[in-house]
Design a protein that fits this description.
alpha+beta; 6-stranded mixed beta sheet
């Protein structure tokens, strides 16, 4: 409930969420395919990015499009950088971040891969 509340009632000055959805042409049922979130890190004028794509809809370019739009929003907001934390086994997301110019570093202490994209 708390996670849904955060998505539904966003403070747009601090965060932005984008949702990719599909409407079934036969039943008109809607299905969320992916969610991308950009959360500002104050006061450092940066943001953390997170993207989640449903397993059935991965490798179709949805994550790439969400990333493109969230980076565009960060630039429009005049943020200095975007940060991300990825599990070491999530090589697909690591490659996506690298394609967008993120510098990736492995944090053995935290057990994650950290990504950072300078925007200025």
């Amino acid at each position: 409930h708390e996670r849904l509340t955060r998505i539904c009632f966003i403070d747009y000055d601090r965060q932005m969420a984008l949702v990719a959805e599909h409407t079934d042409p036969n039943s008109s049922a809607r299905e969320i395919l992916a969610v991308g979130r950009l959360s500002k890190l104050l006061p450092e004028n940066a943001a953390e990015i997170a993207i989640l794509v449903s397993d059935r809809f991965q490798r179709l370019g949805i994550g790439t499009e969400l990333m493109r739009r969230l980076v565009e929003i960060a630039r429009h907001e005049k943020l200095r950088r975007i940060k991300a934390e990825i599990l070491p086994e999530n090589t697909v997301t690591q490659k996506l971040l690298a394609r967008f110019g993120f510098k990736l570093t492995h944090s053995i202490q935290d057990g994650v891969v950290k990504g950072e994209l300078a925007l200025t």
